[in-house]
Amino acid sequence: MEKLHIAIVGRRNSGKSSLINVLTGQKVAIVSDVPGTTTDPVKRSYEIPGFASVVFIDTAGIDDTGELGRQRIAKTTEILPQSDFILLLITENRFEAMEENLVRQIQNLHIPFLILHNKSDILSLHPDVKNTLESRYKTQVIDFCCRRPENISELFEAIRKLKQISTSPSLLGKIIRPRDILLLVTPIDSEVPVGRLILPQVQMIRDILDNHSVSIVLQPEEISSFLLTTGIRPRLVITDSQVFKKVAEQIPANIPLTSFSIVLAHRKGYFQEYIKGTRTIDRLQDGDTILLLESCSHHTTCEDIGRVKIPALLKKYTGKQLNFEFIPALDPLEKSPSAYALVIQCGGCMVTSQQLQTRLRPFIESGIPVSNYGMTLAFLNGIFERSIQEWEKE
Fold this sequence. Notes:
This protein is an alpha/beta fold. Helix content is 36%, strand content 18%. The strands form three sheets. The chain has a six-stranded mixed β-sheet with strand order 2-3-1-4-5-6, sandwiched between helices. Strands 8-7-9-10 form a four-stranded parallel β-sheet. Strands 12-11-13-14 form a four-stranded parallel β-sheet, with helices on both faces.
């Protein structure tokens, strides 16, 4: 299940840090009457019973001052597109240009939000302010007090209504049935953490179990002997994208084949955009710049799929002089989307669907083709149509 990232934003001393402490039932953030106590974003994981695993993010005030204040505000602004949901805190019935500008940013990112009128023990939410804000922004405005959080259940219920993720969609549920056998091909190389599987593989195994199906996990070198000695015909083979070609050569053409990255792409959105964008690889020209978006930070090795293998294969396949740029984790975009001829997003196992879609939306709205690690590698190895055929049936 994806963790819902909830950012808490507002002016200094609006009670953001107090709220995160109340929501988690722990003293996570420092609380003080001194304006600007919170500087860098503070994150805390929490389980909302019966709803979701969440990460609350405490942020600096949007009214901070001075050069350091501007830097803190910039950090808060960077958090917005990384959020699945936003709680905007106001006090004293105060909603002015600063809040209006913040809401415009939130709406432009298509992120659901609630307005929380905090410190109601000092001054209650005025009915006219509530009605005006709810009418203007089509969202709920809740009167709240961190010192007497009797309506915390009302807040959680409002979040549930706006962000229905209590049951995440299955990765494979639409294409497999109970007792189906799936073959998961997981090469062990320098990219794999010692003694562990990488997250997409773990997620796939759990999803197969949830669907009462059977997973068989092996390395590429074991495929041929496994199929020969067992006689098992898997319902589906899912492989690490970087060994697509090697696996495809060993799996009979009548057995469906895809990759972990492509399965994740189907779950997280923009799947059809990926398909269209991947097919534009044949149109790349000399001098084009390709942006590779990574959703995590990691040490680069000679076997790195995004920074080494994909660029090398693209140059070889196209025969063109191509330029490559990389953005790790959820770092902000520094150039205009129009600077790129193609954007290739990793599988996105470390980010939520909302975060991934928010990241890609500027490119799609600008008409820049987008692809995915798995689809790109399938295309470059001549097995693209085969790799997406299970979802083309939908």
